[in-house]
Amino acid sequence: MGSFIKLGYGLQAKGTVYNAHNLATSYHKKQTLKGEYPNIKVDYSKVKLSQGVMLETADLKISKVTGGLEISWDPSYNEDLQPNDSVMVMLCSETGADKEYLNIAIRSKGKCFITLREEVLNQQIEPYIAFISADGTRVSDSVYLGNLNGQGKNDAQKQEEEKYQQVKTRFDQVAGSYSAQMEAHYGNPPRTKAIKYLEKE
């Protein structure tokens, strides 16, 4: 994400005492955090990975397809939007393994394809897109393309799910063993210590 931020906020930082990282951090602390500690969350719809004067590109879309993601946009251009503007894409994931693509296509192409493993493709993904001029002197605000695959689980939810799976696994083991003993004795469980323990569980 660092390189994306550097390009996305670098123009703003020129001629000031701040760097791109300072500006991005300041914006996101003020605008994107919600809730109270320790339950602070990020409002992904308010995240801005770049800020600039270039006009927003129309008809931005993202879709999951076999083997990855397809992102498309209106390829038309004018005095402000040039055909050789570079397309920058950022994919933020629940695992923290963010992926940045700083020159994945040019505006005139109208779309790009990002190859992803099935495991990654089915995780929570928060995608962003921005455009930057070929000479690097103009950049657009990044645009949030919308959540894919829903929200990931927090640590507490993951712990509860793990606990449930442990209990379910033990139940299945006990149920299987008990059923086998019952079947072996024609529905009449032997009054052994092991069977009494299984019935108790």
Account of the 3D structure:
With 201 residues, the chain is of the alpha+beta class. The chain has two domains: 2-144, Immunoglobulins (Immunoglobulin-like); 155-200. It has helices at residues 2-13, 20-31, 118-121, 155-184, 193-200; strands at residues 33-34, 41-42, 61-65, 68-72, 86-93, 99-106, 111-115, 125-132, 143-144. The strands form three sheets. The protein has a four-stranded antiparallel beta sheet, with helices on one face. The chain has a three-stranded antiparallel beta sheet with strand order 3-4-7, with no helix packed on it. It has a two-stranded antiparallel sheet with strand order 1-2. Strand 5 and strand 6 (99-106) form a beta hairpin. Helix 1 packs across helix 2. The longest helix is centred in the C-terminal third of the chain and has 30 residues, at 155-184.
List the helices and strands and how they pair.
Layout: H1 2-13, H2 20-31, E1 33-34, E2 41-42, E3 61-65, E4 68-72, E5 86-93, E6 99-106, E7 111-115, H3 118-121, E8 125-132, E9 143-144, H4 155-184, H5 193-200
Antiparallel strand pairs: 1-2, 3-4, 4-7, 5-6, 5-8, 8-9
Helix pairs in contact: 1-2
Which sequence of strands runs across the widest sheet?
6-5-8-9
Radius of gyration, Cα only, in angstroms? 26 Å
Q: How many helices in DSSP terms?
A: 5
The ordered H/E elements are HHEEEEEEEHEEHH
Any idea of the CATH class of the largest domain? Mainly Beta
The number of domains: 2
Give the tags.
5 helices; elongated; three-stranded antiparallel sheet; alpha+beta; Immunoglobulin-like; 33% helix; 2 domains
